[in-house]
Design goal:
The complex is a heterotrimer. By secondary structure, chain A is an alpha/beta fold. Chain A is built from 17 helices and 22 strands. Helices cover about 75% and strands about 0% of the residues of chain C. Classes of the chains: A alpha/beta, B mainly alpha, C mainly alpha.
Chain lengths: ~500, ~325, ~325
């Protein structure tokens, strides 16, 4: 039995927030030397569970065991003292401080009179950095490091203590392939030392590559644990979402109109260079590539938020220059931005006012905004997009992610744009809303809109697009039609493995 | 069970009312309490007296409300008030101007200062705290340079109609009260009802999202500083007219008192929330507290301590209701 | 990365370059315009500079710590006045008068204790209520000023003790006590911020508070300590100044908070916390004081000082932003 004493075991964890049962009796255990995946849709309760484990939230019921010893986590310090370490998804580093100070944050070695023992600090940190095979030293300022290297600093932090369990929360989100290899080596090392590892990720290929078992959460409830070797993507998906998500290829032959928007040799510094593409009325053009490939920057340029350094933009054949979003909107270009909460919505403002924001100047009776005109627009798009909100007065911040996204889409549809650009249409929203939004995008194209969809999810791009542009390092590598595209071809193109630009 | 449900609904609505209009409720309780204790407190003359003496602070607070809802600060209003009072008095005495030209000239100069604030903060996107801190100092220097460090006085006080803004009354209501009320009504409508007002909330609530919605953020911020300067000029006019003279430092320290009134009214320093009505309540609370304490025979400075406690309690209550916990969760 | 270093160097060195510029300018301009023909850059002048810079300077050092920590303190001016009043008033308490010269250190102690107590109040409120420090100390600025007035009405508080004056005017190497206290504070707090765990944690908390919380730092007590520190430093500033002057006016210290913040920002401390240096603040304080002295030296009206300092503050902010621009690739939001 001793051999199978779990490094970490959770039993019946319950956590409720006002109106939400975020965790509903979650139990699972991680063995020493095991990589245990934790999977679930956004909102399934993974991050709440991790916060309970880290002592940031106190559970309403349930118990936590470290090596079968019951433990109460009152705060991050306790978690650390118990040997439970976290690699956070959102980097939690102080950029102005050195690598060493970040690695030992909260535990700087002391000399007398509260002085920092720099020699020990740097020596210990450098020893850890050496294990990680990184090319920066303990004295480097964290702000000077790339995102991937900052991630390594986070990992180094986990190695400062004799960890019994390490939790990786989406660690590869911003890593290149080469950096991933290093990360997986580190994980393998930890595992060899008998550390229990919880690995949270959405990426199936990684899950199958490095994990031993998979536990699945849905709607805050534990749905079971699978042996990685004995399962497949389909089974996992079904457990995660309760049914299969329709992500069949888009096969419908589009009924194409004239070219709505064309970019020729468009560049913006080194963010993206020499981009040439066009989108027709009635067509969905997909942009696929890794984070940082320049897709979002192209969208921002088309929306007047960046000044192109070269090239031209043609709207219905006429060259246009866009100094600001105001001009772009006036020309009928709309952008549903990547970050809903930061760029898409004024969260404290109500649903109606968010939808009518771009056209509030036109909805007036005399000098005042007309309540009636606004409400009628809101009602129209609430019905059309099936927005679920208690009332138009509800602050948008209180809605679910899917409904928030519909508000942003409604905002732009109500402007009747010529070209609708949608950046990451379904990031962070639940499965039900996901397929609704996919259907909506197809529907809009059918109605004659020219739609550009930017996505990091391959199934999504394949599902909604008529044509797909693959980007790598600021360049368009290839363009595929729905008929010719293959997953392999796409992956090669966005990894820079195919030669010619389109 | 129906009974408890009813009770809990009732409690919820009371709690909701407190959360939304807590400051108003506190104001009413305070007024009733003081009136019971000393009926002179709600004597109409006393009430007008209080509003009249709050008018300068109040008019400034109206403008600052726009700035704060737009997500910025304006610490320059105090020295701007000194500037406008000194300028209007000086030009009044200047034979080339006289009262009729002095007033528009003073408005133009004060608005120019507001435009500078707005340009630096709106268009150049510089931090409003530091810019207006710098402007506080710079405008103070400008005023001193302009006046040569001398106080300004109107020589023949009986021969000018200039006193009407600070001393006059119409229909039995003091003119400063009328100006304050009129401006509050006008600006309140602009903020609550017009597209511009909506944009101020959007820019302050989430400036990035406002930009992504095609709202000219810089122009909106610029306009809030123009409004603030306009209000300061009006307050300066009242000030100069009331005393028919002014010191170079007449507005010193007012910037923070004005901000206190705006915050007391419930505007968040983060921007995007607050109303003109609430600011007026905040101003009146400060005014009536001062008055009540004076009526109670306490010195004027006791109000500072009371204001301190009230501001902290008001903001704390506001935060506590939002987070659902009285104490901060920070260890 | 080299570019980054260059920028850091530029930013760190800018204030000293500016001070050098001021020295050269006032020296040259003084020779051209000044009738007296006295040199501006001369030892006595520079020693005087340090002494005059001390009251705001000592407070600015504390403000640097609080701002690096991600907070701000607008109540320091009132704390300064109240500590001064307590110090001078305590000298005339019966048991203190009985002590003779022995009462002096006690009076200083009372003043510092006052500062610590006021800082403690601010710190506790910020920690326990979660109300933003800007609002808490804005309220305290009014409240503490009220306490100042309540202490002695609108009357000035005075007590001239010649032993105390002698101590205040004592000189070492030509530096009078206030200047020495200022330099000692700069050195002490510089060591605190660069060498000690508390200082490094202050940077970490100001830089990324969530990260600090996640790492298990006790952010609340840490912030509390820094508010006590700035309270004590405001009181120390009062001790250094009023020991010599012997009289406190209830309006003393008004706008000190704004001067201190100006010096701190000129010295390169980031408004949102996490970056800044005590030495930079020393530069900021000296630059402002040089400007005051220099404008007087060349016969400019003293009124111009405010105008020039305000303009420079905005100019610095503008330059800092230009340095941080990303050029053509920038997003126009």
């Amino acid at each position: 039995m001793t051999q199978h004493t779990p490094a970490l075991r959770l039993e019946g964890i319950v956590k409720t927030f006002p109106g939400v049962r975020a965790l509903d009796g979650v139990s699972f255990s991680v063995l020493p030397g095991e990589v245990h995946a934790l999977m679930g849709e956004n909102g399934a309760g993974k991050s709440t569970l991790m916060k309970v484990l880290g002592g940031i939230y106190q559970p309403d019921a349930g118990r936590i065991f470290i090596e079968e010893r019951e433990t109460v986590m009152r705060g991050p310090l306790e978690a650390k003292a118990e040997g439970v370490m976290f690699i956070h998804q959102e980097l939690s580093l102080a950029e102005e401080l050195s690598v060493a100070e970040n690695v030992y944050l909260g535990e700087l070695p002391r000399k007398r009179f509260g002085r920092v023992d720099w020699a020990t600090l740097y020596a210990r940190t450098d020893a850890i950095l050496q294990k990680l095979k990184v090319r920066f030293d303990a004295r480097t300022r964290v702000g000077e490091l790339s995102i991937a290297n900052q991630q390594m600093v986070e990992i180094a932090r986990a190695l400062t203590v004799n960890a019994k369990a390490v939790i990786f929360d989406e660690p590869t989100a911003s890593l290149t392939d080469a950096e991933k290899v290093v990360l997986f080596d580190v994980i393998a090392d930890l595992r060899a030392q008998g550390v229990g590892i919880v690995y949270i990720s959405h990426r199936m290929e990684e899950i199958f590559r490095i994990t031993d078992r998979i536990s699945i959460l849905r709607d805050g409830a534990y749905r079971g644990t699978l042996e990685t070797a004995a399962t497949d993507e389909d089974e996992i998906t079904r457990m995660m979402i309760g049914r299969s998500l329709d992500l069949s290829r888009n096969a419908a032959a589009p009924d194409l109109g004239p070219v709505a928007l064309r970019a020729e040799g468009l560049s913006c510094g080194h963010l993206f260079e020499d981009a040439t593409f066009e989108v027709r009325e009635g067509e969905v053009l997909g942009f696929y590539g890794l984070v940082g490939a320049g897709r979002t920057e192209i969208a921002e340029t088309l929306f007047g938020l960046r000044t192109p350094t070269a090239g031209r933009i043609l709207l219905k054949g006429d060259e246009i220059s866009l100094g600001s979003p105001v001009e772009a909107i006036a020309r009928g270009i709309s952008l549903v931005p990547e970050s809903r909460k930061e760029q898409g919505l004024v969260l404290g403002m109500n649903c109606r006012d968010n939808i009518t924001l771009p056209q509030v100047d036109d909805l007036t009776a005399g000098p005042f905004v007309s309540d009636g005109a606004e409400i009628s627009i809101y009602d129209q798009y609430r019905d059309r997009l099936a927005i679920k909100s208690p009332s138009w007065r509800t602050p948008v911040g209180n809605l679910s992610g899917g409904n928030q996204q519909k508000i942003v889409i409604g905002k732009w549809l109500s402007m009747r744009p010529e070209v609708l650009i949608v950046d990451e249409p379904t990031r962070g929203i639940d499965v039900g809303s996901k397929s609704e939004i996919h259907n909506l995008l197809r529907e809009l194209a059918k109605q004659g809109y020219a739609v550009i969809v930017i996505s990091s999810e391959m199934p999504e791009v394949l599902h909604v697009s008529d044509r797909i542009v693959a980007m790598y390092h600021g360049r368009i590598m290839r363009e595929f039609t729905a008929a010719e595209v293959t997953e392999d071809g796409l992956i090669q193109a966005i990894s820079g493995l195919t030669g010619d630009a389109a | 069970m129906a009974d408890t449900a009813l009770k809990s609904t009732a409690m919820k609505s009371v709690g909701g009312l407190l959360a939304r209009q807590g400051i108003l409720v506190a104001f009413v309780v305070f007024m009733v309490g003081f009136a019971l204790w000393n009926p002179r407190f709600i004597d109409i003359d006393n009430v007008f007296g209080v509003i009249r003496s709050s008018a300068i602070l109040g008019v400034m607070a109206l403008g600052v409300t726009f700035v704060v809802i737009g997500g910025n600060l304006d610490l320059s209003v105090g020295s701007m008030l000194s500037f406008s009072a000194i300028v209007v008095l000086d030009l009044h005495e200047n034979p080339a101007f006289g009262p009729a030209l002095a007033i528009p000239a003073m408005y133009a100069m004060t608005l120019a200062l507001g435009a500078l604030n707005g340009f630096l903060i709106g268009y150049l996107r510089l931090n409003s705290l530091i810019v207006t801190l710098g402007m506080l100092s710079a405008i103070h220097g400008l005023t001193l340079t302009y006046s040569g460090g001398q106080n300004m006085d109107i020589a023949n006080q009986s021969e000018t109609w200039f006193g009407v803004f600070g001393r006059g009354s119409a229909l039995g209501i003091p003119v400063p009260v009328l100006i304050f009320a009129g401006l509050a009504a006008l600006l309140g409508m602009i903020l609550a009802k017009t597209p511009f007002g909506r944009k101020v909330y959007a820019v302050g609530g989430n400036g990035t999202a406002a930009t992504f919605s095609g709202i000219p953020r810089a122009r909106v911020v610029f306009a809030t500083y123009l409004i603030s300067a306009f209000c300061v000029a009006t307050a300066g006019l009242i000030q100069a007219s009331r005393t028919m003279g002014a010191q170079n430092t007449v507005g010193q320290g007012l910037e923070l008192e004005v901000l206190a009134a705006v915050i007391l009214g419930g505007a968040s320093l983060l921007g995007g929330s607050g109303t003109i009505f609430k600011t007026v309540i905040g101003v009146l609370i400060l005014g009536f507290i001062q008055n009540g304490l004076l009526l109670a025979g306490l010195e004027f400075y006791v109000q500072f301590v009371v204001t301190w406690i009230i501001i902290i309690l008001a903001v704390w209550l506001d935060i506590a209701t939002k987070r659902g916990k009285l104490w901060s969760p920070i260890a | 990365m080299r570019d980054e270093r260059l920028k850091t160097l530029l930013k760190g060195g800018a204030i000293w370059g500016f001070i050098l510029l001021e020295l050269v300018f006032f020296e040259v301009a003084g020779r051209i315009w000044s009738l007296s023909g006295n040199a501006f850059v001369d030892l006595d002048n520079m020693l005087l500079l340090l002494k005059q810079a001390a009251p705001i300077g000592i407070i600015a050092v504390g403000m640097t710590v609080v701002m690096i920590n991600g907070n701000i303190d607008l109540s320091v001016g009132a704390t300064y006045a109240l500590a001064g009043i307590v110090m001078l008033d305590s000298m005339s308490w019966p048991f203190m008068e009985a002590l003779g010269a022995g009462a002096i250190p006690l009076a200083w102690g009372f003043a510092l204790l006052t500062g610590a107590l006021l800082g403690l109040i601010n710190g506790l409120i910020v920690w326990k209520t979660g109300v933003d420090a800007f609002i808490v100390t804005l309220g305290a600025m009014l409240g503490f000023r009220g306490l100042v007035f309540m202490y002695n009405g609108e009357q000035p508080t005075y007590h001239l003790d010649w032993t105390m004056v002698d101590i205040a005017e004592a000189e070492i190497l030509g530096l009078q006590t206030p200047a020495l206290v200022f330099l000692a504070v700069v050195l002490g707090v510089w060591l605190l911020m660069t060498r000690t765990v508390h200082g490094r944690n202050a940077y970490a908390i100001g830089d990324n508070r969530d990260a600090a919380v996640n790492a298990g730092l006790r952010v609340g007590p840490h912030i509390l300590i820094n508010f006590v520190l700035i309270g004590v430093l405001a009181a120390l500033s009062a001790v250094a100044f009023y020991s010599g002057s012997g009289s406190v006016n209830p309006n003393d210290g008004m706008l000190f908070e704004l001067w201190a913040i100006t010096a701190v920002v000129l010295g390169g401390t980031k408004l949102t916390g996490g970056r800044g240096s005590i030495i930079g603040t020393l530069g900021g304080v000296l630059a402002i004081q040089l400007l005051r002295m220099g404008l007087g030296h060349i016969g400019a009206q003293t009124e111009t000082v405010n105008l020039v300092i305000g303009t420079i503050l905005i100019a610095v902010l503008f330059l800092d932003r230009q340095l941080n621009r990303k050029g053509a690739e920038e997003l126009k939001i």
